[in-house]
Amino acid sequence: MNSKSLIVTVLAGLSITLATSCGPEKPKEVYYLVSANLQVPYWQSVVNGFNKGAAAYKVPARVVGPETYDPLAELDALQKAVRAKPSGILISVSDASILERAIDDAVKQEIPVITVDSDATATRRLYFVGTNNREAGRDGAARLIDKLGGKGNVVFFTIPGQPNLEDRLAGFKQALSGQPGIKIVEIVDIKGSASAAFDDAQRLLSRSGSEKIDAFVCLEAISGKPVADAIKRAKVTDRVVIAWDTDQGTLNAIRDGTIDSTIAQKPYTMGYFGLMLLYQANHVPPPQLNKDFRTDFFSPYPVFVDTGTTLVDRSNVDLYFSAQAAAK
Question: Buried-most residue among 31, 46, 185, 236 (CB within 10 A)?
Fold first, then answer.
């Protein structure tokens, strides 16, 4: 063997030794936000916060999930994210019955999972970041009771099965249980569709007499504007509308008086803080990830992080317009 062949042989052997001694390559640090309805302005604000958090920590971030309300498509996005072996997953649970198993599968694979906006309490996610939805529902009910004077027929617009919306409805029901003069006559499933919300609002506005609908309560961001549009088209001014979140259409309808008020959440904060908490869980991991931290007296994590809410009406709506303009 000549000297040149000997050098090639030695280098080849050294490469094999290094490859086998180093073991598998460590996955690159990356964080995922998984949700449904990503085309809704509310979720664009969450995404903005998530991406700003990633930029602050100088880590890559990925946002995945369907543009519309589609829990099965969100499940597919979650499963693909898990296969990518990310450093952490922030997920909004559109339907707990569909997503719970996949969340637990992620944790079993040593991937930290934190829920945001909508929780899955039966899973091994670390904890929840978002609104105290039952309390927010009770706050909305207090406004509704005041505006109705303790008497009237109410309908709710929601998406059944979505945990955060179920909690909001439970908060309303709890507060209204002591108001015999206020009757919940229908709970409308808008199926995540603004057009469905508009059509149902038109149908309900046609009722009169003892069946007249006195108040419309929208428990999610999608239905506020279409309900307001239906009321404007019907040219009625004696209905109470309480909405959720602060998209432009809802704020405009508060300013013109069609919507009485809305419960404003902090979606940007949810996204930013969610990324920060995932980063912490990845860099300072617990001794055991796959456990129920809710019942652990020495848990390093809270049960949930409340990002807060504000009631927005005509008295303070201009503050939100100013804040949105400043954020652009």
Answer: 46
Contact (CB, 8 A) for 93 and 128: no
Count Cβ atoms below 10 Å from residue 161 Cβ, excluding itself.
15
Q: Domain for residue 6, yes or no?
A: no
In 120-246, which residue ranges form alpha helices assigned H by DSSP?
Answer: 133-148, 163-176, 194-205, 224-234
CATH number at 278 reads 3.40.50.2300
Instruction: For residue 244, give the nearest of 163, 121, 94, 133 by alpha carbon.
Output: 133
User: What distance in Å separates the CA atoms of residue 195 and residue 309, rounded to the nearest whole number?
Assistant: 27
Do 102 and 215 lie in one domain? The reply is no
- Cα–Cα distance measured from residue 57 to residue 30, given in angstroms and rounded to the nearest whole number: 11
290 and 178: one domain?
Answer: no
In whole angstroms, what is the distance from residue 20 CA to residue 126 CA? Answer: 35
Residue type, 135: E
Q: How far is CA 66 from CA 75, 150, 214, in A?
A: 10, 41, 35
Per DSSP, the three-state class of 98 is: helix
> Are the C-beta atoms of 243 and 291 separated by less than 8 Å?
no
The residues, any chain, with a CB within 8 Å of residue 132's CB and separated by 6 or more, are 304, 306, 309
Stated pTM of the model: 0.86
- Token reading at 76: 């597919």
Residues sharing a CB contact under 8 Å with residue 246, sequence separation 6 or more, in sequence order = 262, 264, 312, 320, 324
91-135 pLDDT tens trace: 999 999 999 999 999 999 999 999 999 999 999 999 999 999 999
Q: Is 107 helix (H, G, I), strand (E, B) or coil?
A: helix
CA dihedral 102→105→110→111, nearest 10 degrees, is: -10
**Beta strands 310-312 and 261-264, pairing class:** antiparallel
